[in-house]
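ligand=magnesium ion
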Amino acid sequence: MWIERLRIERLRLFEEVELGFRRGLNVLVGANGAGKTSVLEAVHVLANGRSFRGNVRDGLIRSGSAALRIYAELDPDDGSTVRRIGVERGTRDWSARIDGSPVPLLSDVYRELAVVCFEPGSHALIAGTSEHRRRFLDWALFHVEHAFLADWRGYQRALRQRNALLKQPAVDVALLDAWEADMAQAGERLTVHRRDYLARFEPVLLDVARRFLPEAGQLELRFQQGWGDRPLADALQNARNRDMAIGHTTVGPHRADWEIRYERLPSRETFSRGQEKLTVLACVLAQAELFAADRGSWPVVLLDDLASELDAGHLALTLDRLVHSAAQVLVTGTAALPIVSGAEDRATVFHVEHARVRRED
Ligand SMILES: Nc1ncnc2c1ncn2[C@@H]1O[C@H](COP(=O)(O)OP(=O)(O)OP(=O)(O)O)[C@@H](O)[C@H]1O
Ligand SMILES: [Mg+2]
């Protein structure tokens, strides 16, 4: 899929701006603070309901404004017609539209636009909390496995109920039994999806990482499902006393995690900062490739400040790989990028200056 047109209203420094993107590489160039990252944030918000720099509370809405609005025209790239999607955030709630009609669920909009992103904060996929790594898995499953969202929601709901019960002075055991049964059912199912995804992801990642970090040797993914190896229903029952004392649920897929083990880098603590970034970039590119293989069309690839994150060799490697794919790429930088020779016709440059954007034709 790719974005033909993007309209941003009252997001960060933008009052109102419209960009006509092309397929291939879209390079946004401008000085510090000009608004380049904000354009990528707008795309990310439309695809996920949150920015990679935080949510509405973190200054997404332009100062002095009450609401933001983001609208895009998408070519799904599957022969179907252009889709128009939009989200709006008023003082309290989000609302969403597809092809002009309001939709009750924001997730309906998120389904239309799949976006992967690599930006200066992305190292959290390796160095950050397990939440980042679960979100990475769940993004793919949301887009590829239709049943996943219902299981995920079912699990989260039952988990909230169990946590609320655990905080009561006298726990209602019958209710606890019932919510644990729901958790176990949905939780086992979503764990199967996560495990299967990682097994399919591993060889794709291996192929990308071999080029990006040849010095690290073979890699292997390890999955921790979030509890021991017994059925989840047993694990929940066993953990009851401890969970009551603590006041929340300590076992289950909400604690799942995964890690990358390289043959020649014993643990993630031994990664250099650059190796950390390259590993994350390899994950992002591999995830996009697997998505393309599963869905028959690429997600939009966002790359913020790429040239300051990578050395020249890895920068060229990344751009080369993407420019020869069918992906639409939005990449930002303070200077023009060294576009792969022979691919100049697949690159469009945008100048971002004081919240205005001009396309070079
Ligand atoms: N809520 C807000 N209201 C108004 N302006 C904001 C708001 N939040 C951020 N800004 C301004 O928007 C700009 C942020 O731009 P952005 O981060 O997109 O810049 P950039 O072009 O990516 O810069 P850099 O090269 O430094 O990464 C800054 O000038 C910042 O001060
Ligand atoms: Mg920036």
